[in-house]
Amino acid sequence: MASLNVKAVIVSLLILLVGLGVWEALNQPPAASAEMTEYERLMGGADQEARVPPPSQVLSHAFDELSDPFYDAGPNDKGIGIQLAYSLYRVLTGFIAAALVAIPLGFLIGMSPLMYKALNPFIQVLRPISPLAWMPLALFVIKDSEQSAIFVIFICSIWPMLINTAFGVANVRKDWIRVAQTHELGALKTAFLVILPAAAPTILTGMRISIGIAWLVIVAAEMLVGGTGIGYYVWNEWNNLDLNSVIFSILMIGLIGMLLDLVLGSLAKLVKYEE
Amino acid sequence: MSNRFLSIEGLSKSYPSKSGELVVFEDVNIGIDKGEFVCIIGHSGCGKSTILNVLAGLDTPSSGNVIMDGKEVSGPSLDRGVVFQNYSLLPWLTTLQNVAFGVKARWPKWSKDKVNEHSRRFLEMVGLGHSLQKKPSELSGGMRQRVSIARAFATSPKLLLLDEPFGALDALTRGIIQEELIKIWAETHQTVFMITHDVDEAILLADRILLMTNGPQARVAESVKISIPRPRSRAEIIETPAYYKIRNYLVNFLVARSGNLSGSSGSAASETREVDPTLLSSEADTTTSKEPAPPRPRAVNNY
Ligand SMILES: Nc1ncnc2c1ncn2[C@@H]1O[C@H](COP(=O)(O)OP(=O)(O)O)[C@@H](O)[C@H]1O
Ligand SMILES: [Mg+2]
């Protein structure tokens, strides 16, 4: 096993190096000594600006940004740390609010075939709606871009958690319910001592899917509402034609998304059980 | 009948079906005394599990009732402990926690130490003192069933219900756990109602064996007294002549008579006949086995 891991790391590093190497080689600014073509002369050498920056530039830019991630020089110039913190704040607030609604509601739906049947049509219609489609309505009703973004996160996080919780609860093995019954556990104790631990892995799967979607959606939502956050930052840097920052923030979005998934993944490990 | 510890009176169960009603069993009357170990045998599908679930309060009969200790049984209760064939342990809890789960439910006011101490004692009784912190997934089938038995005994129910508890175990493991069951039963003297399909197991454990006819419209046809003195052990029991008489009687019932008797629920036939095979003369003793039993009988299972 260990040797497989070691090999995998080596292969990963090789792929990274080759990828960066190709990227670097393909995106060199034209050598200063080379004679400009007529076209380039006409374009005023703008060609250089339009290239994707090579990794060496992005990395040195990343180093600059990360050495002072929390600087704040006015509304259009904040450090990457501050932008990410805004996004994380919105994602976590929306996600936690969604969990507080979805898990108890999912419990109810999972326990009651009647509620399952009654609520299913609503869920089926609401679920496929792109969360961003809610944005105009949210802005109109809530009248606050910050809270509207949180609402969009809330609405997109709720479905996977709701559906997984309901499914997990509805499919708790009959035997375990019988154990609760023969031990005269009341409804509340049955819910907390038997159904919750039994359904926890499924619930956690739902939470993991939700936080992944929430992180996808926040970038788009912030591009729409603007002001702060990593989504706004990417869009703003694009408007500034600062591709170094764009690429750097893309990488940061991936990194944070991975960390969020890791956290939920390790929570899932805690509640996992082997049958 | 009604003054016995447990009495099942006129029990029947039927399900609606395309052609009217499917009567699984009907007019089942069983009385069990305190401290008695009763096994019930019958072909698969005759309704044994249904009867047990009614006793457990997990299922309701179509008619008839169950009275235990002067009170009508309705709904599950800690007074009736159940061991299911598939163990029914909670897989996210350790061995000790699984037993403690039952003990806590039984005595909610007990301190944590007392609960654990009590649980440990019963796990030691079934030889699992060394696996307290293991999860069910780390245990073999036999060990899981021991945990399940320990959990049931630890709550000291007035009646213990076992539904083919050893059905999924290999013969060797089954033998060992049977002896453990005898031991723990001898210490606690619970009243036990157990389903089995293993004739030898029933003879080893039971004071009385109830024989059911085949379904549909199954009935409890006979109640066979097992007069072999206790303590019994698997090694010694096969030395007793009574053992073969009883065994042949039971096998004969299952092979030859359980089918014939079924459905013929005349008023006379619905009585449960009480039998002690050791007292029967050899021609009343039945057809299959006049010859002496084989010297090393193998368990005849799956009846
Ligand atoms: N929900 C149901 N609908 C119709 N028939 C059922 C239902 N549940 C059980 N039965 C029938 O009841 C009979 C008795 O089942 P069970 O008590 O499990 O038998 P045993 O434990 O003796 O094998 C079976 O023949 C089964 O077909
Ligand atoms: Mg059964």
Automatic annotation (TrEMBL), chain A:
It is found in: Cell inner membrane; Cell membrane. One of its GO terms (biological process) is alkanesulfonate transmembrane transport. InterPro entries: MetI-like, MetI-like_sf, NtrB. GO terms for cellular component: plasma membrane. It comes from the Bacteria. It is a multi-pass membrane protein. CDD domains: TM_PBP2 (cd06261). Residues 84-264 form the ABC transmembrane type-1 domain. Keywords: Cell inner membrane, Cell membrane, Ion transport, Membrane, Transmembrane, Transmembrane helix, Transport. One of its GO terms (molecular function) is nitrate transmembrane transporter activity. The chain crosses the membrane at residues 6-26, 88-110, 149-167, 187-206, 213-235, 247-271. NCBIfam families: ntrB (TIGR01183). Belongs to the binding-protein-dependent transport system permease family. This is Nitrate/nitrite transport system permease protein. It comes from Marinobacterium lutimaris.
From TrEMBL, chain B:
Belongs to the ABC transporter superfamily. The keyword Transmembrane does not apply. It comes from Marinobacterium lutimaris. The lineage of its organism: Bacteria, Pseudomonadati, Pseudomonadota, Gammaproteobacteria, Oceanospirillales. NCBIfam families: ntrCD. Residues 279-290 have a biased composition (Polar residues). Residues 6-239 form the ABC transporter domain. One of its GO terms (cellular component) is plasma membrane. GO terms for molecular function: ATP binding; ATP hydrolysis activity; nitrate transmembrane transporter activity. It comes from the Bacteria. Residues 262-303 are annotated as: Disordered. InterPro entries: AAA+_ATPase, ABC_transporter-like_ATP-bd, ABC_transporter-like_CS, ABC_transporter_ATP-bind, NO3_transporter_ATP-bd-like, P-loop_NTPase. Keywords: ATP-binding, Cell membrane, Membrane, Nucleotide-binding, Transport. It is a peripheral membrane protein. PROSITE patterns: ABC_TRANSPORTER_1, ABC_TRANSPORTER_2. This is Nitrate/nitrite transport system ATP-binding protein. It is found in: Cell membrane.
